[in-house]
Amino acid sequence: MTGEITLRGLILPVGGIKEKFLAAHRAGIKRVVMPERNRKDIIDIPEQPRKEIEIIFVKRMDELLPFVLTEMPKLQARCRAPYPAPRHQPAGTASRRAGVGAEAE
Questions:
Q1: What is the pTM of this model?
Q2: What is the pLDDT of residues 69-94, one digit of tens each?
Q3: Residue 21 burial (CB < 10 Å; 0-12/13-18/19+)?
Q4: How far apart are CA 59 and CA 9, in angstroms?
Q5: Contact yes or no for 14/4 (Cβ under 8 A)
């Protein structure tokens, strides 16, 4: 998977389409999703691999998601913090734990 999208969800063209397509063919991939703006690059790909792989062209992220996600994630799960929120520490305790201001034993 490679590529870029704009903040508005437009899918931008990518380079190296022939090489990426041939690598996908060698790996046994049966479906490739490409930016619509790379349609012109298909002529560089040999005919045999082109016949064996389904090519889907997309312009926007909302067109892409049904092809790459089998199940849309729940909004609540995406918003959850990956780590617990830090607990408030009384003033001065953080510096003592780090050894600053503490007497050597």
A1: 0.61
A2: 876 656 655 555 555 555 666 655 55
A3: buried
A4: 9
A5: yes
